[in-house]
Amino acid sequence: xxxxxxxxxxxxxxxxxxxxxxxxxxxxxxxxxxxxxxxxxxxxxxxxxxxxxxxxxxxxxxxxxxxxxxxxxxxxxxxxxxxxxxxxxxxxxxxxxxxxxxxxxxxxxxxxxxxxxxxxxxxxxxxxxxxxxxxxxxxxxxxxxxxxxxxxxxxxxxxxxxxxxxxxxxxxxxxxxxxxxxxxxxxxxxxxxxxxxxxxxxxxxxxxxxxxxxxxxxxxxxxxxxxxxxxxxxxxxxxxxxxxxxxxxxxxxxxxxxxxxxxxxxxxxxxxxxxxxxxxxxxxxxxxxxxxxxxxxxxxxxxxxxxxxxxxxxxxxxxxxxxxxxxxxxxxxxxxxxxxxxxxxxxxxxxxxxxxxxxxxxxxxxxxxxxxxxxxxxxxxxxxxxxxxxxxxxxxxxxxxxxxxxxxxxxxxxxxxxxxxx
Length: 422
Hints:
single chain
């Protein structure tokens, strides 16, 4: 690897639009971005497209070509204060271009903080998002920006990028690599140019010899041995979230918060993490601690309001609480058991006493006849049949072995005596 290492993708990032590969519908002569640069017209833009297709590079090319002061923020670790600081600097200098990566992660308040500066022309905004801006960017901000869709790069684009890098970067050129097979490089990079270039650099620096032949087998071996990734759309995404959930289920808050940090560092959507916590609160904790579901739901709402970077604290509180809570999968197993029973027995008739009887005809058919209102009896309970006759006595909920559900078990035993075997 070269000394004072800057990633290859950064070293060979195009500086002018003529060197940009891909997105011909935007950058080819006569197309909208080429015209913007040629006529020196600054417009606020939202770039919508998958990772690694040129959103950041285009923003930098526009700023450089128009000779504009350039600021960049990541919505993962920036907040309203950072936005206001940039706006103040832009105001002092007269005008600036602000690039916000993953702008969809800004909450409404953070996006609102941009409106005045964009409206007045204090800043020209370029936002990048992998999510549909119609759903993730507030309408007031969208109305002040042009939205351009960036297309996935083709294999031809990706190969051209690598060949361009070999030509431009002295270190890579000197490695004398000969790429005989491209399939693994394409598969592992997943259409992400940044990932592809850095993968090529890793492979080139790992092969011994004067001439370095690259094939699928060599790429796979090097990646398995040397590459540690968090890819929020690939296999690592599922490995990390699996380890995260299993750590909470296994009551290890230390491991759980470690994997939380891995996901945050990888740019995982905090709402995705919070949604998984809500599911876990019922699936793995349930009635052993009913407050877990309340806390997890509150966590999701707070994350939605706050966003990165501060929501990491909220997530940490919820994760450590859930990991440290008593565990029970009894509610989860109950619905599984009930669905299995329904699948086996079909649509059995509901007992007449507990059917609804909104009409006279239904009452004549004995709908609701014999129903006993529980609150009219001591302890607010009366022994009556609620299940269809064919499945009467089927025990679907088995309280877990914890203090809270022990109390539930005792209550059910007192109610139902021997009917369900509590």
